[in-house]
Specification:
The complex is a heterodimer. By secondary structure, chain A is α/β, with parallel strands linked by helices. Chain A is about 40% helix and about 20% strand. Chain A has helices spanning about 1-5, 65-75, 110-120, 160-170, 175-180, 195-210, 215-235, 250-260, 270-275, 280-300, and strands at about 15-20, 30-35, 40-50, 50-60, 90, 105, 125-130, 135-140, 145-150, 240-245. In chain A, strands 1-4-3-2-5-6 form a six-stranded mixed β-sheet. Chain A has a four-stranded mixed β-sheet with strand order 9-8-7-10, sandwiched between helices. In chain A, helix 7 (about 215-235) packs across helix 8 (about 250-260). Chain A is globular and about 65 Å long. Chain B folds into two domains: about 1-100 and about 245-265, ATPase, nucleotide binding domain (Nucleotidyltransferase, domain 5); about 100-245, Nucleotidyltransferase, domain 5, CATH 3.30.420.40. Chain B has eight helices and ten strands. Classes of the chains: A alpha/beta, B alpha/beta. The interface between A and B is medium-sized, with 18 and 19 residues.
Chain lengths: ~300, ~270
């Protein structure tokens, strides 16, 4: 234990959960949940009549179904909710087929578009989702329906996992990498390696050359931003543009992508007040689909 | 009649991403092979490796008539008389070791190549992967670290497995996370190791297939010494693969053969 404490894990991001103040699920007619088991993070959102009631964001463990149970359990903590109270639950994400309590699984692409539409409204047309092990550029219509999409899920370059690796190498907490990378007065050349393994060696070389950490970080994040921007441009960047997934919090990525594309993303709503978290967009979308599916089943 | 001195002494230096290799040939016969890690000062390491080879061959610098350099950091060996592409050197070496060589596959620390050549060792076509670590030796190194197994033991360990674990093998970084989960689930390390070699073999084979595989297939580069990788590649390609005794030195030997030719041309 002693030893574990000494070795700081810089990639380790903070988990969180909360319940919307002043709301009681007992007054709701329809209770649904969305559980997004990502490769790195598991997110659960509980909705009462299509409005966010509670949520949780935590790290995915080695077992998808355990992670799903834990995430939903954490979102239900101290609310008095039990699984029996839900009318419908939808699983999504990388581990969506392993969400044991889900009535149905829906792809994370559909869920992210739906979730972004809920978080920011019907003007959203382009969604960049930066997940743990993939990056997606999604185009959607005013109803949050997917029009087209492109994704990279074969390679860590430009993903959250790649960012974690570099944060660990530079010994900068993952929550701070964005800010630290913006301390440079001018962006350096991006790292030339696409592969994170090679980029890591390149970063070590730059440090040895005497580059300060923030400059090395800026060089890496710049390369990430270029990669993401290319993906968005391929799918076509139409306004309004938003960023979802864990890296939506990374100011270093956000500001560089905005600069390259020449488009500002819509600002992130206040989580405490609205419960609308870009990191939970997939789970929000899943909970909305759950409501629609429940209503459809009643009508039948 | 007095016999005129016609022997040619040539050297090849292969400036790899991880190791520097030197081969000295006397009339095309290998008389010395030495290698060192690149380290932080590639040029110094290159000079040292050449010095080591000269010592082994009991020769002095002046005895070498021509030095040809190759490899990823070929420009870090300024003392070389000429350079040759890595593909050209591999083709030459492949045909030198096995005259039947038509496809040479070279898997190094950070890249992999497949080269088509003719019976004289002239390169005709090639395919390269140098952008992704999942198809090169670095993959095995990273996974050995994740498995807490010595790199040298990875191959024999993998041979003990009868099946392979399921891993995301498209990317070294993703595979690392998968390996951690698999260890937590107490999957046998041998099966994880086999999954890694299978994945690498898959990448290398598909690269070679893009080029078109002609018999005989020669495997060179540092990774050719790994029995686990060779077994996986054999299974994947389904043809016999020939490996020279010292596959690590193929690039250096190929460069030295080019140097031999160039030394003769100068006379």
């Amino acid at each position: 234990m002693e030893n574990n404490k000494k070795k700081q894990e810089y990639w380790r991001w903070l988990e969180y959960h909360s319940v919307m103040p002043g709301k009681d699920w007992r007054n709701a007619e329809v209770l649904t949940a969305g559980v997004d088991v990502g490769s790195v993070g598991s997110k659960a959102v509980v909705m009462a009549d299509g409005e966010i009631y509670s949520w949780s964001v935590m790290r995915t463990g080695s077992n998808s179904s355990d992670s799903a149970k834990k995430a939903l359990g954490w979102a239900m903590e101290n609310t008095g909710l039990t699984l029996k109270d839900f009318n419908y639950i939808v699983g999504t994400g990388y581990g969506r087929v392993n969400v044991p309590m889900a009535n149905r699984a829906i792809t994370e692409i559909a869920c992210h578009a739906k979730g972004a539409n809920y978080i920011w409204g019907p003007s959203v047309r382009t969604v960049l989702d930066v997940g743990g092990q993939d990056v997606k550029a999604i185009r959607c219509d005013a109803n949050g329906k997917v029009v087209s999409f492109l994704m990279n899920d074969k390679c860590a370059a430009g993903t959250g996992r790649g960012m974690e690796v570099i944060a660990d190498l530079l010994k900068i907490p993952i929550e701070e990498v964005g800010e630290v990378s913006l301390r440079v007065t001018e962006d350096p050349e991006p790292v030339s390696s696409t592969c994170v393994v090679f980029a890591k060696s390149e970063a070590v070389g730059l440090l040895r050359k005497g580059w300060p950490k923030e400059k090395v970080l800026a060089s890496y994040i710049r390369a990430m931003a270029i990669r993401m921007s290319e993906l968005i441009e391929k799918v076509g960047c139409e306004r309004e543009f938003v960023i979802t997934g864990g890296q939506a919090k990374n100011s270093g990525i956000v500001s560089r992508v905005e600069n390259i594309l020449g488009v500002k993303r819509l600002p992130v709503p206040n989580l405490e007040v609205t419960g609308r978290d870009p990191a939970s967009a997939g789970a929000i979308g899943a909970a909305l689909f759950a409501k629609a599916l429940h209503e459809k089943s009643i009508r039948r | 009649m007095k016999k005129e001195k016609t022997e040619v002494i040539s050297a090849g230096i292969d400036m790899g991403t991880q190791r520097i290799k030197v081969a000295i040939l006397k009339d095309k016969q290998i008389i010395a092979q030495t290698q060192n890690f690149v380290g932080f000062e590639p040029t110094k390491a290159a000079e040292q490796t050449l010095k080591d080879a000269l010592e082994t061959a009991k020769l002095s610098r002046e005895d070498i008539q021509h030095i040809t350099a190759t490899g990823a950091s070929v420009n870090m060996a300024p003392f070389a008389d000429s350079t040759i592409s890595m593909m050209g050197a591999d083709a030459k070496a492949g045909a030198y070791f096995f005259s039947s060589a038509r496809t040479v596959i070279d898997v190094g620390a950070e890249d992999a190549r497949a080269i088509k050549c003719d019976e004289t060792g002239i390169m005709q076509d090639f395919v390269v992967n140098a952008r992704c670590a999942a198809g090169a030796g670095t993959f095995i190194e990273a996974m050995a670290r994740a498995l807490e197994v010595d790199l040298e033991d990875m191959g024999t360990l993998s041979l003990k497995a009868e099946r392979a674990s399921q891993i995301n093998a498209s990317c070294v970084i993703f595979a690392e996370s998968d390996v951690v989960s698999l260890i937590h689930r107490e999957e046998p390390k041998s099966e994880i190791a086999r999954a890694i070699f299978d994945a690498m073999a898959e990448r290398v084979a598909s690269m070679a297939h893009r080029l078109g595989i002609n018999k005989d297939i020669i495997l060179v580069g540092g990774v050719a010494k790994d029995v686990g990788f060779v077994a996986s590649l054999n299974r994947r390609i389904g043809m016999d693969i020939l490996i020279p005794k010292e596959p690590l030195f193929a690039g250096a030997v190929g460069a030295a053969l080019i140097a031999d030719k160039r030394a003769k041309r100068k006379r």
